Amino acid sequence: MDRIRRTEEKFRELFHGAPSGNEGTDPEFMQILQRFIFGEVSYTGSLDTRMRELITVTVLAVEQTLPQLKAHVGASLNVGLSPLEIREAIYQCAPFIGFPKTLNAISAMNEEFASRGISLPLESAVTVTEDTRYENGLAAQAPLYGTEIADRYEWLPGGFSEEVPKWLTELCFSDFSTRKGLREKTRELLEVVVLAALGGAETQVRSHVKGALAVGNTAEEIVCALCHAMPYIGVPRLFNALNCSSDILDKGRDKNEENFEKMNVFGRGAENTAYADYFTGNSYLKPLTSQNCKLTFANVTFEPGCRNHWHIHHAEKGGGQILLCVAGGGWYQEYGKPARSLAPGDVVEIPANVKHWHGAKKNEWFSHIAVEIPGKNTSNEWLEEVSDDEYDKLDG
Q1: Model confidence over 16-64: pLDDT tens digits?
Q2: Which CATH number applies to 3-255: 2.40.40.10, 3.40.1210.10, 1.20.1290.10, 1.20.1260.10?
Q3: Distance, CA of 331 to CA of 339 (rounded, Å)
Q4: Are 172 and 96 contacting, i.e. CB atoms less than 8 angstroms apart?
Q5: What is the residue extent of each domain of the chain?
Q6: Half-sphere exposure (CA, 13 Å, Cβ side) for 116?
Q7: Whole-angstrom Cα distance, residue 396 to residue 393?
Q8: DSSP three-state, residue 360
C-alpha cells in the first residue's frame, strides 16, 4: 500500500472522513502535511493507533494548538480511547507546562466532549487523600528516581531545600501520577514526549527516558513516541531529545529484548493487526503451518505488558487450544481462578468453553505457540479487556 492509500485509510480511521484534495487555499501544503503524518509517520514503529493519539493530544496540549487538539480529541474517541484516558493525558501536562495552558487544553477537550454528548464532569480518578498525599507520591517516585531531586537542590536557601522536592513529590507524583485512567507505563512515555516538546528540558528528558525504560517501555517504543511527535514539535526538538538520551536508549535497546529474540526461535512475525482490537498493547503473529494443514500452529509474540482480552473458544465437541511457551515470561488466567505464571517450556491446555486470557508480564516479552484443537462447531468469542487494575495486581 502506498502512502496516499495509507493516508486515506488512516484518515477514515481517525476522522471518519477523507484527506484534503485540491480544495482550499493551500492544497499542496496540506497534501505534504497529511501524507507525511498519516501516510508515513503513523505507520512507522510498533505503537498502536490509540497510543499514538494519546501522544498527539499530549503534544498539541503542550504546543497550545487548540483547534488541532480539539480535532484529535475527537479522533481519540473514534479509535476507542475513553474520555478518562484522554482527560488524564491532558491533566498530567500541568506540572510541565503550567496550569493556565493546561486549562486551555481542558477547555478544548471539553468542547469536543460536549459535542459528543459526554456528560461532565467525568468520574473521579483521585486515589490519594490529604493525609496520604506525600506517602503515596514518594512510593511512586522513589523506585524510579530515588532522591535525585532532593540531592540536586539541597543547596537551596531557607526552607526551599525541603519544600521544592516535596512539591515535586506531592504535585507530580501524587496529585497526577497516582490517578486512575492511565497505566504507569503510559504516563511515563507521555512525560518523555511532553519534555521533548517543551524544548530546553534535555536534563529532564534523560531522567524520564530512564524512568520510562524502568516501567517497561522499550527503547523502540520511546523512539517511536518521539518520532510520532516530530511533525508537531519539529525536527530540531526530536534530535535534541534523541541526542541527549542516545546512550541510555542504546544501552536499553534492549538487552532483554535481544536475549528474548535469540530464544524466540520461531521468529516474531508481522504485527498482529487483524486481531489488534482484541489486544491491549502490541502483539505479533507468525503462522507456522499452511492453510491446508489440519492443525493450526502459530507463534504469538507479546510486547511487555501486552495481553489479549478475555475470550472463549466455543465448541460443541472437542475444540479448545494448547499454548506451548517458547520465550520470555507471561500469564494465563481462567475466569474465577488465580493467574498462572508462564515460562519457556510450560504447556497450557485450554479447555473449550472456558473464559480466559493470556499475555506477557509487565516488564517482559513473551511468546507462545498457539495450537488450535479441532472440534465440532468451533468459534471464538471475544469479551471485555483485562483491566489495568486486574493486570497490575499480578505479582511478577
Answers
A1: 999 988 999 999 999 999 999 999 999 888 788 999 999 999 999 999 9
A2: 1.20.1290.10
A3: 6
A4: no
A5: 3-255, 261-392
A6: 19
A7: 9
A8: strand
